[in-house]
């Protein structure tokens, strides 16, 4: 009878060995970061350095959020991350678009603090002060909180009928504030929130009237440019801060103030410190608290800033579902952001070009950065 040799240990284990060789080898780590990603992050950024590098890289490389041109993350007053896309750098000035409104809000705060304006008074606009003109009931507070009641339709369709487009580029371009101030009321002042670049432009005109009463166009521009420089750019060390002006000499305070990314971050730090820089109080703390307090007609808006608060409006300017509700932001057209998270001692500046349909994805990527510091 033939004898059969017992199977060897190798033969017995062969199926398992084959599976080990060609099957699952265990969980894989995250893909390697591209060159330069880690170098964009400080050695001690306040959170895990690689996690922050990946979150920053996502803002530049995700295909669903448009084009990021600059990103600055500041934590506890220090630069935690700074990165630029090709063709841009620390000296590049970026238009703030509607982030300019927040600068204008601070300018108004300077004038209120000095007693030149009163929040609940009608602003010094002659055409509104004529007997029987209902626009004389509009207050400075209502303009700041976007509830003036003026007939300004933002982002209307077709685009050439939209209030901000008509004011800046079409029939209002030579006298933007004059165009905005000439519009009739659509609502009783104070009754409804309507986001409005023309409202901010009225405030820019009001600020100019206060510091340069009766001046011609050239003088209006010169006086406001000097005021912006001496009262904000110098104390905040925002050397790149400049504004554009229309033919009437009015600062385009609703849409066209420029600064480089680091200076926009310095502005965010100024807001985080409630109006102080290096211990010097530039505007009263109470003014920044007013700007970041929900308005009576919009839980997600204060006075020239957006708040991270839930709303029934359907707007998703920030990330209320991910909190915290102390976060606020200056937000501009095409995805310009200065996000301030006071509890995390955090300021994030993102500058670039993101179309409206990609805005939610961009906000989500920025919220990922905030979330890192929330868990720190």
Please explain how this structure is put together:
With 376 residues, the chain is α+β, with helices and mostly antiparallel strands. It folds into two domains: 32-91 and 308-376, Beta-Lactamase, CATH 3.30.450; 93-258, Beta-lactamase (3-Layer(aba) Sandwich), CATH 3.40.710.10. It has eleven helices and eleven strands. It has helices spanning 9-22, 49-61, 99-113, 140-144, 163-169, 176-181, 197-211, 217-236, 261-272, 285-291, 359-374, and strands at residues 67-75, 78-84, 93-95, 242-243, 257-260, 276-277, 280-281, 306-307, 328-332, 336-341, 346-353. A six-stranded antiparallel β-sheet has the order 2-1-11-10-9-8, with helices on both faces. The chain has a three-stranded antiparallel β-sheet with strand order 3-5-4. The protein has a two-stranded antiparallel ribbon with strand order 6-7. A hairpin with a 4-residue loop joins strand 10 (336-341) and strand 11. Helix 2 packs antiparallel against helix 11. Mean pLDDT is 93; it is low at 1-22.
Largest sheet: 6 strands, antiparallel
User: Can you count the beta strands?
Assistant: 11
Strand content: 5-15%
Q: Order of strands side by side in the largest beta sheet?
A: 2-1-11-10-9-8
Structural class: alpha+beta
CATH architecture of the largest domain: 3-Layer(aba) Sandwich
Radius of gyration over C-alpha positions, nearest whole angstrom:
26 Å
The CATH topology name of the largest domain reads Beta-lactamase
Mean pLDDT: 93
CATH class of the largest domain, named Alpha Beta
Q: How many domains is the backbone divided into?
A: 2
Provide the CATH superfamily of the largest domain.
Answer: DD-peptidase/beta-lactamase superfamily
Q: Would you identify the regions where 5 or more consecutive residues have pLDDT less than 50?
A: 1-22
The oligomeric state of the chains shown is: single chain
Spatial shape: globular
Give the fraction of residues assigned to helices: 25-40%
Order of helices and strands: HHEEEHHHHHHEEHEEHEEEEH
């Amino acid at each position: 009878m033939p004898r059969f040799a017992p199977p060897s240990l190798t033969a017995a284990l062969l199926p398992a060995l084959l599976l080990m060789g060609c099957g699952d080898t265990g969980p894989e780590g995250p893909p390697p970061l591209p060159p330069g990603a880690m170098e964009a992050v400080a050695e001690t950024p306040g959170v895990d350095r690689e996690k922050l590098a990946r979150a920053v890289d996502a803002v530049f490389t995700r295909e669903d959020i448009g084009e990021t041109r600059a990103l600055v993350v500041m934590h506890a007053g220090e630069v935690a991350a700074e990165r630029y896309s090709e063709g841009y750098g620390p000296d590049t000035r970026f238009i703030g678009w509607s982030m300019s409104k927040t600068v204008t809000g601070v300018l108004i705060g300077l004038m209120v603090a000095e007693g030149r304006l009163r929040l609940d008074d009608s602003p010094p606009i002659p055409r509104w002060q004529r007997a029987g003109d209902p626009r004389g009931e509009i207050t400075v507070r209502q303009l700041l909180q976007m509830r003036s009641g003026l007939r300004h339709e933002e982002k209307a369709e077709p685009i050439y009928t939209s209030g901000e487009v008509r004011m800046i580029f079409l029939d209002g371009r030579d006298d933007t504030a004059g165009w905005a101030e000439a519009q009739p009321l659509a609502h009783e002042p104070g009754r409804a929130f309507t986001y409005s670049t023309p409202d901010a432009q009225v405030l820019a005109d009001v600020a100019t009237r206060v510091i340069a009463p009766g001046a011609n166009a050239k003088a209006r521009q010169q006086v406001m440019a000097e005021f912006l420089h001496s009262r904000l750019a110098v104390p905040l060390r925002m050397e790149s801060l400049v504004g554009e002006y229309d033919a009437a000499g009015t600062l385009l305070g609703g849409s066209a103030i420029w600064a480089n990314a680091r200076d926009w971050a310095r502005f965010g730090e100024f807001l985080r410190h409630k109006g102080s820089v290096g211990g010097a109080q530039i505007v009263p703390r109470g003014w920044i608290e007013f700007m970041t307090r929900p308005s009576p007609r919009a839980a997600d808006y204060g006075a020239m800033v957006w708040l991270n608060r839930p709303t029934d409006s359907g707007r998703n300017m920030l990330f209320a579902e991910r909190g915290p509700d102390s976060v606020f932001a200056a937000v501009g057209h095409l995805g310009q952001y200065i996000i301030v998270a006071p509890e995390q001692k955090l300021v994030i500046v993102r500058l670039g070009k993101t179309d409206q349909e990609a805005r939610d994805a961009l906000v989500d990527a920025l919220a990922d950065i905030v979330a890192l510091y929330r868990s720190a």
